[in-house]
Amino acid sequence: MEPVVLLAMHALDTASPEFWKGLGSALLCGGAIGLERQLRGRPAGLRTCSLICLGTMIFARLGEVITTDGGDPVRMAGQIVVGIGFLGAGVIMNRHHVVRGLTTASVIWLLAALGVLIGLRMYDSAFAVTAIVVVMLGGVGALERHAPWLRRGAHGKSAAAPPDDNDDQPV
Description:
By secondary structure, the protein is mainly alpha-helical. Helices cover 60% and strands 8% of the residues. It has one domain (5-156, 165-170). Strand 3 and strand 4 form a beta hairpin. The longest helix has 24 residues, at 123-146.
C-alpha cells in the first residue's frame, strides 16, 4: 500500500483565506437553519446544525486533499451520505403509531448536502439553498396554521402528539 498523498493543502490550511471562507460559510448556513429551528423549539438547533454543516464541509475538503493509490474523492461524499443517514435515522421515533422526527432527519440530511456544497466551493448554491430552507421551514408552518386544508391526513395533529410539533407523521 502506498502512503497517503496530500494535495491542494490550501483548502485545509488555516493560513489560507479559502479555509476561513469555507468555515464561515458552513457556520453561517448551518447557523441560519439551526437558529430557525431553535427559535421554534425544534430538535437539532443552532449548535447541532452548525456542527453538521461544518463537519461535512471538512470531510468534503478532506476528500479533495487526501488520495491514495487508486483513491476516489467521490467516495468521501458517498460515505458522508451513509454516515449522516445513520444520524438522521437516530432522530426518527415511532410512538403510539405516530412517526416523529422526519423533518429533523430531513434537515440533518440537507445540512450534510450544504456542507458538501461548501466543501466543493459552491458558495452561491449553498446560500441559495439555505435561504430556501429557512423560508420553507418557517413559511410552511405558518401556512399550516392558517390553512386548515393543509392539516388533513398525514399532516394533521394526532391526539398522541404534542399540539406544537410539526415533525409528526402517522405510520
